[in-house]
C-alpha cells in the first residue's frame, strides 16, 4: 500500500466508512463527503472493474458506462498490478450472494 495515503486523516475517514451500517447510511454519508460527480466517478470505476473481470471489451465498457478509454485502462492497471482491493471486494460480494441464495 502506498505510504502517501496512510495518514491520520485517511485512517479517520476509513473508520467513518467502516462505521456505516446500511446502504442508506452510505448514501447519507457519501452525499455529504463527495460531490455528485466524485461519487459517480467512483461508482463508474467500480462498474468498469466488474466488466473487465467479466472479460468485456473496452468498447463494450465504454458504451455501457460512458467511461473513457483512459479510465478503463487505469482501472485495468489496478486490477492487474494493484493491491488486489477490487478482487478482495468482488470475492466477498460473490460469497455474500452465494450465502443469500442458500
UniProtKB/TrEMBL annotation:
One Gene Ontology term of the molecular function aspect: sequence-specific DNA binding
Entries under InterPro entries matching the protein: Trp_repress, Trp_repressor/repl_initiator, TrpR-like_sf, YecD_YerC
SUPFAM superfamilies noted in UniProt: TrpR-like
Domain of life, source organism: Bacteria
One of the Pfam families matching this protein, by short name: Trp_repressor
Protein name per its UniProtKB record: TrpR YerC/YecD
Species the sequence originates in: Coprococcus comes
Encoding gene, per UniProt annotation: yerC
Amino acid at each position: 500500500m502506498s505510504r502517501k495515503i496512510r495518514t491520520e486523516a485517511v485512517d479517520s475517514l476509513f473508520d467513518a466508512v467502516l462505521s456505516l451500517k446500511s446502504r442508506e447510511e452510505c448514501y447519507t454519508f457519501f452525499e455529504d463527503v463527495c460531490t455528485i460527480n466524485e461519487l459517480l466517478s467512483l461508482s463508474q470505476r467500480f462498474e468498469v472493474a466488474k466488466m473487465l473481470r467479466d472479460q468485456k471489451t473496452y468498447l463494450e465498457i465504454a458504451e455501457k458506462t460512458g467511461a473513457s478509454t483512459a479510465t478503463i485502462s487505469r482501472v485495468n492497471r489496478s486490477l492487474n498490478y494493484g493491491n488486489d482491493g477490487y478482487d478482495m471486494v468482488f470475492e466477498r460480494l460473490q460469497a455474500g450472494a452465494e450465502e443469500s441464495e442458500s
